[in-house]
Each structure stands twice: as structure tokens, then as C-alpha cells.
Amino acid sequence: MNPPEPHAPRNTGGRPKGDEPTKVVRLPVSLADRARALLKSDNLHEWPQVQASGTQFFVPPAHLQRVELPLFSTRVRAGFPSPADDHVEKRLDLNELCIAHPEATFFVRVSGDSMTRAGLSDNDILVVDRALDAQPGMIVVAAINNEVTVKRLARRRGRFYLDPESDNPSYQPIELKEGLDCVIWGVVRHVVRKL
């Protein structure tokens, strides 16, 4: 087989159809077949829950239905405000409040007590945004050697760490050093919990 000539037209057989730009995305090997199947389906807006390494992820639909509820201007100390219309400051959509980048947002459930001092409890649901660049001080969801964890990203003496925030001394900082298989999946923006 002869190599292509320098000015010969390129073979574009492996490129996606259409004019829309594409993006390379890293994900755990265990999710690759599931992601391919979802991308081939015609119902991309109906993304189901996904399991990886025993962790359950929920991916919100790309086009979120707006649900606007009243936000009262009255501050509540230990009671419930009067629902009189003249106290309604505006209408608030929780999707708009919690999800800045719908196409890059997913939910994940907390398991364990390594982040209780940060306010994250077992069974809480985290709203995670993949569109944000993780910076020291932010709480992130990361995969370390294919195990998913939530920790605070820190930088000390020029090195990066994933720090637990717990009263349990068995949790120690994880140094992100060369050779460690670590992928930061996104930044935690909100926590959802039942009272």
C-alpha cells in the first residue's frame, strides 16, 4: 500500500457527521460500553442512572424542565413566612439555581463519612459540574485507581492533595503524585439532602 500523497484529499471515514465540534472525554472503562449505547440512542435527553465502581451517578437531561417556585423576600428565623403575594421577591427555578451547565452536570450519592466536617453526609446527593476547572479549596469528585471519592482539592508546598474533612482519623490526605491513576470528574456545587 502506498502512503498518501502530500496534497491528496484526506480520508474522513472516521469522523462524525455534521458540523458540530467534538470533544474527547475520559471516563472509566467500565462505563465505555454504556456511554456508546447512550450516544447511539435517539433519546439522549432520557439519560438513566449509571453505576461505576459501586457508585451510582444520575445524569440530568440536557433540556431541563423549568419549575419556578416563589422566593419570599421575608427572611425566616424560626417560622414560615406569610404566603402573601406582596412578599414574593421573584420566582425561583431550582434547576437555574443549582445547574449552571446542564450538559456537563451529574448527580452522585455520598457514601461514607470522610467529608462530614465539610457538611457532606452519607446518602447526600451532590450536584457536580464537569465544566468547571478544579481549583485548590474546591470539593471535587475524583476517580483514584478506578475508585470514586469526594474530597477537597488542596495545594501545599507545590504539591496537590485530596483532603478528607472528617473527625475520623483513619482518613488521610491523598497526594496526587506521578504514577497515581487519578481523574477529577468535576466540582461539587450543591448538596441535596432530606431533613
Helix/strand/pairing category: mainly beta
Helix percent band: under 10%
Question: What's the helix count?
Answer: 2
Q: Tell me about the biggest sheet?
A: 9 strands, antiparallel
CATH architecture level-2 label of the domain at 99-192: Ribbon
> Taking Cα atoms only, what radius of gyration do you get, to the nearest Å?
22 Å
Shape: globular
What is the CATH topology descriptor of the domain at 99-192? Answer: Umud Fragment, subunit A
- For the biggest β-sheet, the strand order reads 1-2-5-6-11-7-8-9-10
Tell me the fraction of residues in β-strands, as a range: 25-35%
Q: What is the CATH homologous superfamily assignment of the domain at 99-192?
A: Umud Fragment, subunit A
Indicate the low-confidence ranges by residue numbers: 1-13, 43-48
Helices and strands in order:
Layout: H1 29-40, E1 49-52, E2 55-58, E3 68-72, E4 88-93, H2 94-98, E5 105-109, E6 125-129, E7 139-144, E8 147-156, E9 159-163, E10 174-175, E11 182-192
Antiparallel strand pairs: 1-2, 2-5, 3-4, 5-6, 6-11, 7-8, 7-11, 8-9, 9-10
Architecture overview:
With 195 residues, the protein is mainly β. The protein has a domain of 94 residues: Umud Fragment, subunit A. Helices cover 9% and strands 32% of the residues. It is built from 2 helices and 11 strands, in the order αββββαβββββββ. A 9-stranded antiparallel sheet has the order 1-2-5-6-11-7-8-9-10. It has a two-stranded antiparallel ribbon with strand order 3-4. β1 and β2 form a beta hairpin. It is globular, with a radius of gyration of 22 Å.
